[in-house]
Design a protein that fits this description.
Layout: H1 4-25, E1 46-53, E2 58-64, H2 65-69, E3 73-75, E4 80-82, E5 85-97, E6 106-112, E7 115-117, E8 122-123, E9 129-133, E10 140-144, E11 156-157, E12 164-170, E13 175-184, E14 194-196, E15 205-206, E16 215-216
Antiparallel strand pairs: 1-13, 1-16, 2-12, 3-4, 3-15, 4-14, 5-10, 5-11, 5-13, 6-9, 6-12, 7-8
Length: 222
């Protein structure tokens, strides 16, 4: 025997299903469509990360907008590549510096340097982040998250590629993780950045060395 509570629940469930069906299809069973098309963003932001390693030490190497553009290159010919982006930015930078000789400390540092213009002095806040280690089992480590309101973390058109965003200092064996964000250029042709390729496969994607001697890992390289 079915209780009254169970019967009420069954009636409510059927009514809810019928209400949803009528809201979606209407009384006559004709499917209702939105009165206007929904918002459409064809060039949504694309987020990705590159890992780089180096076998050389440096006391001061520049990371520029060219390095961002070089993180993703499309081969237009066997010798020429372009950036598919219209604008790019850096979201986060992490760096590890290992000790290779017991008793010899290593130091890594990141120093924001970006200056967009000397007219109104839109520039990064002068600062330097560093870490030193003496032990093999604990590498030096830095995490840098540039502000969107400062040049190092703001959006950059790929036509302006010579600006230095920050300087790096690191030992041999350092690892660099950089998180990028880009907006694809879907309405125009390639602008600004170009890369010289050697025996590239047309249509393939490549990544180039950044900050002079940091080589990308697990991707096609130049």
């Amino acid at each position: 025997m079915i209780s009254k509570n169970t019967q009420r629940k069954s009636i409510k469930t059927r009514s809810k299903r019928q209400g949803n069906s009528q809201a979606q299809y209407g009384v006559m069973g004709i499917r209702r469509l939105p009165s206007l098309p929904p918002p459409y963003v064809p060039n949504k932001q694309y987020k990705f990360m590159r890992r780089y390693v180096t076998t050389q030490a440096s006391t001061g190497t520049s990371f520029t907008i060219t390095d961002i553009c070089g993180s993703l290159i499309m081969a237009a010919t066997t010798t020429l590549g372009y950036s598919p982006f219209e604008a790019v930015r850096i979201k986060r930078v992490r760096m590890w510096g290992p000790v290779t000789t017991i008793g010899t400390p290593v130091t890594i540092s990141i120093a924001p340097q970006a200056v967009e213009t000397t007219v109104n002095c839109y520039a990064d806040v002068p600062s330097i982040m560093s870490d030193t280690t003496l032990t093999i089992d604990r590498p030096a480590y830095i995490e840098y998250v540039p502000r969107l309101t400062e040049p190092s973390g703001s959006w950059h058109r790929v036509t302006a590629t010579s600006i230095t965003l920050f300087n790096l200092a690191y030992p041999a064996g350092a690892t660099l993780d950089v998180e990028y964000e880009g907006m694809f250029d879907l309405t125009g042709g390639p602008t600004g950045f170009t890369a010289t390729l050697v025996a590239a496969t047309v249509g393939s994607m490549y990544s180039r060395v950044v900050a002079t001697n940091f080589a990308p890992v697990s991707v096609n390289t130049l």
